[in-house]
Specification:
eleven-stranded mixed beta sheet; 11 strands; alpha+beta; about 290 residues
Length: about 290
């Protein structure tokens, strides 16, 4: 039976979004502050996922060997570097998060059974690459604060308490929601981007963050007048709001993850033929928030 293991590494590097065939004004319009000279830097966190049958020692790969390969092929070359000039891959295609992940895959795949590269540029932005040509995924994270009450109008208060517990109390309760939105698309061979990050964030802000933040969901969001605003229903509604506008940007909505509390989160996988809801609950029943 195969097993997947994950190895974490990190490096610090700078980069600049700048195309010499464009004028300074065009670069500014296209890349914003990312085009500023001499560039900007990040503390990148890299997760390398490996899959293989377990060997006779009970390992997918010897972690000492994995650590050595990642250091030799990636981190020793990229740490404290100016990425635009670090590797030939970044001369033709800019070192976006997506393209760096792809380049790291290409450097490691001759040596390790890589199945996924995840590169975290900062806590609110990361990319994943699975070896599918120019296809990559990009995730942004946001948060909003809102209150809700879990109850069905058709049931008595006692019946709602039986189903939803404390969440059915008449005056509701609130959460600091953490939202992750992931999209999939083809990298532009010149810019290295699957989507304009500013446009991506704008869609999420305008359709979700601004309308939902500091609201009582049951009363302020029309959809929840008749739909109980569980974390699951909120995530599903967000996915439905975002799918078409993101498609118009040239990417597909891949996943919406909503973290309601440290004990309660849910994910909507939007590219599957049938939408599947995956719940990650660490506490007892669905009633505990």
């Amino acid at each position: 039976m195969k097993c997947i293991i994950h190895r974490r590494a990190q490096f610090s590097a700078s980069h600049r979004y700048w195309l010499p065939e464009l004028t300074p004004e065009e670069n500014q319009a296209k890349f914003g502050v990312g085009s500023n000279f001499p560039g900007h830097g990040h503390n990148y966190v890299l997760y390398v996922s490996l899959e293989e049958e377990l060997d006779c020692y009970g390992m997918v790969q010897n972690l000492s060997d994995v650590k050595r390969v990642i250091k030799q092929e990636v981190t020793s070359q990229l740490d404290f570097s100016y990425l635009n000039q670090a590797w030939p891959e970044f001369e033709q295609t800019l070192p976006t998060t997506e393209n760096i992940a792809k380049a790291i895959w290409q450097r490691l795949i001759p040596h390790l059974p890589v199945v996924k590269i995840q590169l975290v540029e900062h806590p609110e932005l990361w990319a994943e690459y699975y070896g599918n040509g120019m296809e990559a995924s990009l995730t942004i994270s946001n948060h909003f604060s809102a209150a809700h009450r879990l109850a069905l109008d058709s049931l008595s208060y006692a019946e709602n308490v039986e189903i939803y517990g404390k969440c059915a109390r008449p005056n509701g309760h609130g959460h600091n929601y953490h939202l992750e939105v992931s999209v999939v698309g083809e990298m532009n061979p010149r810019t290295g981007m699957i989507v304009d990050l500013g446009d991506f964030q704008k869609v999420v802000n305008e359709l979700v963050i601004e309308p939902f933040d500091h609201t009582f969901l049951n009363k302020d969001i029309p959809y929840f007048a008749k739909v109980v605003p569980t974390a699951e229903n909120i995530a599903l509604h967000i996915a439905n709001l975002l799918q078409e506008p993101l498609r118009e940007l040239g990417v597909e909505l891949d996943k919406v993850k909503l973290i309601e509390s440290p004990n309660n989160s849910c994910e909507i996988y939007c590219r599957r033929a049938t939408q599947t809801l995956s719940l990650a609950r660490e506490s007892e029943p669905a009633l505990a928030n």
